[in-house]
Amino acid sequence: MLRKADVDVRKKNVTPDQIPYSTIVRLTQYLRVVEKLDELGVSNISSAELSDETHINSFLVRKDLSYFGEFGTRGVGYEISVLKRELKSILGLVKRHKTVIVGAGNLGRALVHYSGFRDKGFDIVAIFDSSPEKIGASIEGFKIESVFVLEEYLKSNPDVTIGIIAVPAASAQFIANLLVANNIQGILSFAPIAINLPEDVVYAAVDLTTHLEIISYYITNPDARKSYSLRA
Amino acid sequence: MLRKADVDVRKKNVTPDQIPYSTIVRLTQYLRVVEKLDELGVSNISSAELSDETHINSFLVRKDLSYFGEFGTRGVGYEISVLKRELKSILGLVKRHKTVIVGAGNLGRALVHYSGFRDKGFDIVAIFDSSPEKIGASIEGFKIESVFVLEEYLKSNPDVTIGIIAVPAASAQFIANLLVANNIQGILSFAPIAINLPEDVVYAAVDLTTHLEIISYYITNPDARKSYSLRA
DNA sequence: CTATGTGAAGAACTTCACAGCT
DNA sequence: AGCTGTGAAGTTCTTCACATAG
Fold it and tell me: What is the maximal distance between C-alpha atoms in chain B?
């Protein structure tokens, strides 16, 4: 099956859909390390050193990177500046992403305050809520707007591509539908419920209690612990 | 390699460490559905229906559950009340877990306010911060305490088993060390940095920007999308 | 001599097909 | 007849070993 490769997988005999999801998760970890070292003025790193920093096997580090090109120099390692640039390019972080937050409860407000999003290229451009007491209040220079104008807002701002859902479980599906109907391409949901979406919408769910439940399992069952772990 | 099985894997020819991590993640999803249906008064569910609710293949639903016992009735399905009880038991959710939060910034405070933790069996018992302006302030009936008394607190409250780290990247490792040195068995970290921990400490990391970066990748590279997805 | 890049081997996970109960 | 439970098959992901390049 031959497909147009919009990821630059050069002369490789892998198509983009053969690249493991876990690889993408790990790319973000490499980027984290590389950004830190870049700030510290380090100029070069080997897969073994990247392995030390991330606890990801060095074979896997090289395999992951090799899906996208040959970024290293044999006998030497990877140049930090090159690796950083390439990772950002692969992950689509060269351009900034306009993002709306729906839900101005504690979590939604915490997310607006969180500076990490902007630092990494995600610009929060508006926040919405359904509660009359919250609408009109200001956070970080934003006025909380009514969810009833969300649709209109997205129509007049078609460059907003990502929506963050921080509403209660009961209204999550409704909001998700609204976002999808108005051009949003990616959704990050914090609602503790499964949401149904069309296949072509990119969707990630973070359920805070899920993580605690998984921790509970491994605390309760120490023999179940593995040496490896997959985390996002 | 034969090991003592503290998970009740009965006559099965699997040891606890052979149960996939992904299975545990999915168990929490089954639990979510089963709790919802239980509230709605539904008494029975088949693996096919569980599959519809979770978008997890029904073969996999049955395989996941079969690691831990035979909870269903052939020809009929699973009794909701039984499944709920068993899932909670497997995940170690029969007893409640005392949990401390370290870091009273926006995120830490949002977590304290979040009622979902208590609903699922995780009791927030204290919150700590290093900033003099925050120490002494009250949230949800808790006085924010100094991180300098964290160690003392944990020593006099040895039944606290889980720590949530919501401090900046720079102090995350320090706090993690402190928690581990004082009997904490599981750590959930929101710090955008890798933390080094002894192997026997259960550790989960939630990096909020990581999820957005992964979304960015799949938005930017539509051909890379897969039909399956692993989410926590 | 060092460290990358990668086909091939191996391990882990998922899907399948159907035997086994109710 | 219907749906679970599970060995076996199939697929995906990780590890390995080594050819390759500096």
Answer: 63
Residues of chain A numbered 32-91 and touching chain B (CB < 8 Å): 32-33, 36, 53-55, 90-91
What digits encode the pLDDT tens for the residues B169-216? 999 999 999 999 999 999 999 998 889 999 889 999 999 999 999 999
Domains of chain B: 4-90 (1.10.10.10), 97-210 (3.40.50.720)
pLDDT value for B46 = 98
pTM of the model: 0.92
Instruction: Specify which residue's alpha carbon is closest to the C1' of nucleotide C16.
Output: B59
Q: Does A205 touch chain B (CB under 8 A)?
A: yes
Name the token pair of A162.
């990502």
Q: What are phi and psi of A15, to 5 degrees?
A: -90, 160
Q: Please choose, from the candidates A28, A4, A24, the residue with its C-alpha nearest in 3D space to the C-alpha of residue A67.
A: A24
Taking CA atoms, what residue in A is nearest to B198?
A: A227
Q: Which element (helix H / strand E) includes B66?
A: helix B58-66
Q: What is the DSSP letter of A144?
A: P
Mean pLDDT of chain A: 91
CB A31 within 8 A of CB A119: no
Dihedral sign, CA of A182, A187, A188, A194?
positive
Report how far apart, in Å, the C-alpha atoms of A182 and of each of A150, A157, B59 are. 9, 10, 35
Measured CA to CA, the distance from residue A71 to residue A79 in angstroms comes to 8
